[in-house]
Amino acid sequence: MKVYFCGSIRGGRDDVHVYQRIVEKLRSYGTVLTEHVSSSQLSDRGEDATAAGDRAIHDRDMDWLQQSDVIVAEVTQPSLGVGYELGRAVDMKKTIFCLFRPSSGRSLSAMIRGADDGELFVVRDYNEDEVENVLEEFFSKLKRT
User: Fold this and answer.
1) DSSP class of residue 1?
2) Is the pLDDT of residue 47 over 80?
3) Whole-angstrom Cα Rg for the chain
4) Which one-letter DSSP state was computed for residue 49?
5) Coil, helix or strand for 6?
6) Alpha-carbon distances, residue 103 vs 15, 16, 33, 77, 127 (angstroms)
7) Which ranges of the chain would DSSP assign to H, the alpha helix?
8) Which CA distances in Å does 78 have to 13, 21, 91, 97?
9) Contacts of residue 139, Cβ cutoff 8 Å, sequence gap at least 6
10) Within 13 A of 137's CA, how many CA atoms are on the CB side?
11) For the whole model, what pTM was predicted?
12) 3-class SS of residue 139
């Protein structure tokens, strides 16, 4: 299984420790195409731009998104990039699982929460200490369908 993980980069790196836990668990389900999102070496300035710059990053990520079997997004830290990726994934009819921590004090965008259809697009509120169990529950249901 190919997993595309979404998390904030240029929108802020406050949750990188959570991203690391998520990516570690996601590895047990298959190949995580976007492991770099969980790297503590990655700052809010993003990846070092290749010679082609932002276009190359966009095109590479869209290729990975197309290849993926499932998208997992940590959506607590608002990010334009993550929102864009989710919109494109919806258009591609991908299975999407969004994770949000209400304890952050933030409110999740209605465009994300309102997209939850319980099937292809699922939003789950969680606490950091239960993230591995929440992922296990989601992937167990995914395997049964």
Assistant:
1) -
2) no
3) 14
4) P
5) strand
6) 13, 16, 28, 12, 7
7) 16-26, 54-67, 80-91, 110-113, 131-144
8) 11, 19, 21, 16
9) 29
10) 11
11) 0.95
12) helix
Residue (of 112, 111, 36, 32) closest to 71 by Cα position: 32
- From residue 140, give the alpha-carbon distance in Å to each of 39, 54, 58, 86: 27, 36, 31, 22
Q: How many other C-beta atoms can be found within 10 angstroms of the C-beta atom of residue 55? A: 10
- Choose among 129, 109, 105, 94: nearest CA to 1: 94
Q: Which two tokens stand for residue 30?
A: 């298959």
Residue 44, amino acid: D
Compute the Cα dihedral for 102, 106, 107, 112 and give only its sign. Answer: negative
pLDDT on residue 26: 98
Residue carrying structure tokens 């049964």: 144
- pLDDT tens track for 16-35: 999 999 999 999 999 999 99
- Residue 133 identity: N
Look up tokens 């607590």; give the residue.
Answer: 76
In the block, residue with structure tokens 């290749």: 50
> Position 127: which residue type?
N
Residue entry with tokens 């997993």: 3
